[in-house]
């Protein structure tokens, strides 16, 4: 036995990953200048660094894109680099899917595919790529440290020095998480930067984590994803906002929250300084946020509603504003915003009282999904924020207000709210008997149906008809009745019973606007604290600099 043990100890190598990395790096030493890749030779470097079958994480969340590196990857010789296993937070750019058509990549694990969702669905139907799983952001990040450890990480930053130290500025987002997963398991980390300079405002990621940097030929792509022009907010969305503020935020004393992106939530943000003020709610609700710096939050911030905001990422045009509001935003000594997608997702999952989102489809029991026939959009972070985390132990008035039992071990619950109009544009019903996600599961050969938020986690649903307080339902049948009551003229709503609705209203399981003191006739744009982008700029004192496409004056 001792001889066998000694033989194993002398023959087994424990540095195979490190040795493989050293070999790959040695192959590009004649191309690079220290850690710096010449801009025009990045494709050549990728061809030497990448090995067929590699697991590659490419930074590309729903805002910030390593666009120079993704374009370079699409140009590698597919006879040298092929069958890559791609890990993408967001499939957002055409080349993210081009690499599968050319054979450079074979399999993908991802979280979101909004801009490419239609093409993604078609490619799956045509068997042009292999599906791993559709993840939430936190789930995907977590697997990078367990069973999806990357061989190569391709990321983006604002600036680097020649030692590889990175400054990520206002859009740190997921960069540190992607880098760390590769850097500490002997993966290779390549960062594209807008500028290589000796003078960094601060070091966000140390050079010892970075192997190679390249100055891109254009700044990385950054989308103003969370900007909503108040001009497009409708009276219907204002009604939904009034119902949410009165029937949920006030009722449950919601102080910490996350808003999803959309006009429904933008309307809520713009009604806080007006409608919320008229209800005497300032200082009582909506004080602490996990939220990107939405421009529609400016009036609420300026009028003293908001105490703190931690951001997933930045927002184009909000850089000067966040820098001048350090009492509200997390900022560095240089004044720039410090965002962190991983930490903000965790805050949105565990630290907030409430999540508000929307969906494309909701079934008769409250299960919802943005994955529909012919459109494989994925989820992003909604399932992280949109569920009741079993690990939570701290209590707040809102969390405790979900208790419906006298059990000695009863616990509170996070408020998970879906705010939707009963029909989408084109009169397509949101409320359906069966989610398309079930069919997509079969077509894409997924192990489970891609449900975004499970009905058991949803506590409230708000429509133009009223609010269903699902957490009060005593059975699945009563849950279905409550949803039918506020589902309008949809396949779910037409099955409601008027007698049941009267009982549900009396028991507080369903509330009409009039039950909450909300007058439909008063739901109009006069409540908006800012009615267009120009007024948002005025509220900011000129600090907000909206992108050109949002300038209408």
From TrEMBL:
Ranges where the record places region Disordered: 1-21
Source species, domain of life: Bacteria
Gene3D superfamilies: Glutaconate Coenzyme A-transferase
Pfam families, sorted: Mal_decarbox_Al
UniProt name for this protein: Malonate decarboxylase subunit alpha
Phylogenetic classification of the source organism: Bacteria, Bacillati, Bacillota, Bacilli, Bacillales
Gene symbol of the encoding locus: mdcA
